[in-house]
Amino acid sequence: MEKVTVMIVEDQEIIRKSLGIVLNLQPDLEVVAMAANGEEAVAFAARFVPSVILMDIQMPVMDGVRATELIKKAQPDAKVIMLTTFQDAEVVSDALQAGAEGYILKAIDPIDLASAIRLVSRGETMISREVAKALFARSLAAPAAPKESEYGLTEREMQVLTCISHGLPNRGIAEKLFLSEGTVKNYISSIYSKLNVPNRASALKKASEEKLL
């Protein structure tokens, strides 16, 4: 079984080592490097070429957003998950702009963290429900019926996009809107096409920037 290689970037040694121990217990994951700041992360990413990078935001020498930008320029295929205690919408947007595929809180359960790493390694995106809510704090509490947007999104597509902004997975969207999961996937593909984005994180970022919600 081919393992997913992981690099942990965290300035607090106890957290860094704890994460390393927890993740190395997973048979399909292997921690190949650990860095204490963004500058080390850039150097280690080039040296060890990890599949997935867990990146802290606030660090000395170089912060996680800047490190992500540099790593992504040098290694476009590297997958980065921002791992932080902060729920600041501006930081979330900066991290997505830098190219991060995921954004989750440090308080996440270790099993869920391992699942997030696997998900991102397969090319998907991961934004925790708490972070999605922080990013779209002004969104409506339930899907509304907004008029067709300038991007040509239909009323139903806008409802699906609103559900995504609330952190709902496909199954949750299907249950909320009384649709099948297959239909939800079709709507999401259409949203990606109309917004000219490749994934959930990019769709959320564009929706936020364009004030679609």
Structure report:
With 213 residues, the chain is α/β, with parallel strands linked by helices. It has 10 helices and 6 strands; from the N terminus they run E-H-E-H-E-H-E-H-E-H-E-H-H-H-H-H. A 6-stranded parallel beta sheet has the order 2-1-3-4-5-6, with helices on both faces. The longest helix is centred in the last third of the chain and has 15 residues, at 181-195. The relative contact order is 0.11. Mean pLDDT is 85; it is low at 138-148.
Catalogue the unreliable spans. 138-148
The count of domains is: 2
Percentage of residues in DSSP E strands: 5-15%
User: Helix proportion of residues, in percent?
Assistant: 40-55%
- Give the overall shape: globular
- The count of strands amounts to 6
Count of DSSP-assigned helices: 10
Second CATH tier, the architecture of the largest domain: 3-Layer(aba) Sandwich
- Average predicted local confidence, pLDDT: 85
Modified residues (4-aspartylphosphate): 56
Domain Response regulatory: 5-121
Keywords: DNA-binding, Phosphoprotein, Transcription, Transcription regulation
InterPro entries: CheY-like_superfamily, NreC/VraR/RcsB-like_REC, Sig_transdc_resp-reg_receiver, Tscrpt_reg_LuxR_C, WalR-like
List the helices and strands and how they pair.
Layout: E1 4-9, H1 13-24, E2 29-35, H2 38-48, E3 52-55, H3 64-74, E4 79-84, H4 89-97, E5 102-105, H5 110-121, E6 126-127, H6 129-135, H7 155-165, H8 170-177, H9 181-195, H10 200-209
Parallel strand pairs: 1-2, 1-3, 3-4, 4-5, 5-6
Helix pairs in contact: 2-3, 3-4, 7-8, 7-9, 8-9
